[in-house]
């Protein structure tokens, strides 16, 4: 049978089976099992209403259980067994093997880099885009164009950006815009401004922002302030401070590199093969896709800010930047956190982009692709499962945070 | 803020300029792909796609028509005349600025000038390519006179690549099968989860039963479970159950993976419907099933549409689930994302194929996106903003 | 068409701690009555209505409609119709479909449905709106559709849950009159109406049920509640400004009672007392509008006018507080701004004076 026909048939069978299930199970409950008639009518109605929710829930619960809950446990089990030894229990051997691989550490390091850069850049660009588009007449058109990459697959986006990063031999026309632009630099004043001063400013402001954020978050620790929170909170703060210090130092160290590095002017570069730098080129793809998402959410949040608070600030003499940073941003900080965590989740699962653009070569490996490699190339289910569990471990804090929030909301 | 007295217009300009910059930056990559997909392989390698949008200056070497066939006697002299572009099967919409008759002096004459080729032999070339070549019998013989032409050519595009990708070409290039496979994966994988999730969401939103709060918390938790975890156990399960790799497996997998978001999104929306309406329906005599089908479902249309768009985009754009649960060794069931990844490997340099294939794969999501953006935005907001 | 009997009705919300919201409710409602439930917010008046509708389970006690116990009967089979505060119109259905929904579910024939709808539409002047969606209607029209939707079902009991509180002031008066006329045109139908608006209660009700502190404070006709409140709560709840309460002690008893007030004055009430009541600590209650100025020596209350509010047809006098009682307020006809700052003596005629002991009126012993 032709797959399209099969698909059509599936829709019809699937949908009518679902609806039929719901309809007949309800009929059975109300008419046959517990009819709302006779002397026991009242009791029967009460009982039927106790059973009915489970009828409604059953297919969804089944799907959730089989396709998400069971695999989590099964993966955990597989990560402790060895497929070649007939599924024997091997304890933490797979993890030990994984931790011994340099490719794993490379993937983990890259993942952490992605985790910092992509949500930060997407949220920042999204906030900027939301702020500027909300204030102009053609803002909706601009928004919809910035939002558009959201509809494009990671694979499609990879093709798009491969064209941008494309490299041709030195004496032929460059068709990748990046090399075309690169060849304009010849080491003159323009090159100095764009390739030395601009990165210097970016790195310094990054180090500054990270350092400041670390300072703000860590301050309660050494002030002994009551706001420091409980033990878990303190550990969390300490981790954030350490990460901030590490990032700031990393940024400052790169300052020296940027200032002293000699650039190969006039030679087209194969960008995706330059270690470390190429990871950022892959991140650009995801930032390009996710900025629209951040913009849409943040723009709604910005519009939800009571106009009066802004007007009061203007009457108090705040300039537009002060209005933005002191009045608007603090009021949408909750939404910013939601956007940030959502993008973080997407980053943790990012697979297609790396798979399609470099397949993890040239030190661009990430966990999801590492896992795919282990599973389907090396056929090593143990280590593959172990790396899947690593991803799970990384999302767990967000999972707990989300569940916590959801419960708070319902209470 | 526009109405506030004394606001500087410079800031407004800065906002406009910043927006233009952002939009251009965000649009540029996609436009590059779109433009490239309409260029021939030679054009793509000849210049960057951005050059294709403007009039380009081309240098060509063309010959006049074969004198032995085309010459016409004009008294003592012989004449060959015609259009230099038409005679050489070159596009005729170009405009000649300068030309020459030797490779050392390709810009010796302006268009419309008459060149003296010596011994009375002359050649006149007009800007539109019309030429008149006049001389004695010996002069107007042998091969046609060479002309070195510098011409302005307008932008030029072709739809040939799309023909190749959609209906012709080799099996690796032809995307039509992958296109239909993708469609076959997508539509059931969008509709079935909606039906199942809608019932569950209603139960979680409006029915009282013990454990409801816990179930909602579980759904929220499963929302973030990376589907990477599910790959091996489910592949094992599918192989064990005899489903194997195929459409049924991928439909089931997408249904399962889409379920948390579907339930969560629909429940959030349904819980916001007015309680009075539902109670009024109860007083009117509707059963729970009737309340669901006649009241809740019609009123939840925006949320249903939002999830449908999400799930459609997600299943259409998916690579991982298809690779694991659908695509077998025969490659008969390949989907577009997978075929593009393969093309990236086998035809990494053939941008006319890659760009067109890429654009074919993103065209449908883009159309859906622009048509139903309103619902997508609403769904995003329902799912994220608290 | 229908009688309702509530016997020892209880409502307790479960959970970690059981919360008792209604306790020992006993009430009999006759055919053709329009009963209004009033009470402060949170007194359980809406809960009681929803229990009658079947939207809340009855924890204990018995609810009978037309003599049949209906505790376990689902809402649709109780023969009731309900009009919600938010109207609860189905937004995706036209006015006609909104009205037809219940009838279709009850498997009525199209002819019956059409007849019922056109009759109701005529009664409520909805004829030209039948094919519109609710969002294309004004607030008052939506309210009428909500009422029409209940009329078509021809129920035994109509339930109204604060149906006018979403309307603006002018529309509220107009719709209130429409409901009163509707009731007159259907003398046989029983209606129960929940409101927090006293004016609605006083103008619409054949009897008012005042709910307070988990129970019924008093049931009676509007004038009974106004003239002879059973207890201090009802006395102060009905009427605006609230009834003045002044502490005192019974000095003479008999067919009429004289009370010497703690603040100095004394007053005669038409409430009868027995000899044993002499020396009883009581509160006397006088409505502000029943207070009159007096120049003689027999006054109930003497005080300095702290502030006046001239409302046109009446003037409110606010007196300095005496002790820890609420400040006394008097409502005099006409304009009396000149009284501000003066010391004024007030009295009231005996039949307008209530006497409460332990919060309960001596008229009801």
Multimeric status of the protein: heterotrimer
Structural class label of chain C: alpha+beta
Q: Which parts of chain B are unreliable, with pLDDT below 50 for 5 consecutive residues or more?
A: none
What would you report as the Rg of chain B, rounded to the nearest angstrom? 33 Å
Q: Catalogue the unreliable spans of chain C.
A: none
- The tally of domains of chain B stands at 3
- Corresponding CATH superfamily of the largest domain in chain B: MetI-like
Summing up helix and strand content along with how strands pair, one would put the structural category of chain B as alpha+beta
What does this structure look like?
The complex is a heterotrimer of chains A (411), B (386) and C (365). With 411 residues, chain A is an all-alpha fold. Chain A folds into three domains: 3-60, no CATH class; 96-182 and 271-411, MetI-like fold; 184-265. Chain A has 16 helices and two strands. Chain A has helices at 3-33, 41-78, 93-99, 102-133, 139-147, 154-164, 177-182, 189-223, 231-260, 277-304, 307-315, 320-331, 333-348, 352-357, 367-377, 381-410; strands at residues 81-82, 88-89. In chain A, helix 10 packs antiparallel against helix 13 (333-348). Chain B has 386 residues and is of the alpha+beta class. In chain B, a hairpin with a 2-residue loop joins strand 2 (72-74) and strand 3. In chain B, helix 6 (176-206) packs antiparallel against helix 12. The longest helix of chain B has 34 residues, at 351-384. Chain C has 365 residues and is an alpha+beta fold. In chain C, the strands form four sheets. Chain C has a six-stranded mixed sheet, with helices on both faces. A six-stranded antiparallel sheet of chain C has the order 13-12-11-14-20-21. The longest helix of chain C is centred in the middle third of the chain and has 17 residues, at 169-185. Chains in contact: A-B, A-C, B-C. The interface between A and B is large, with 121 and 119 residues.
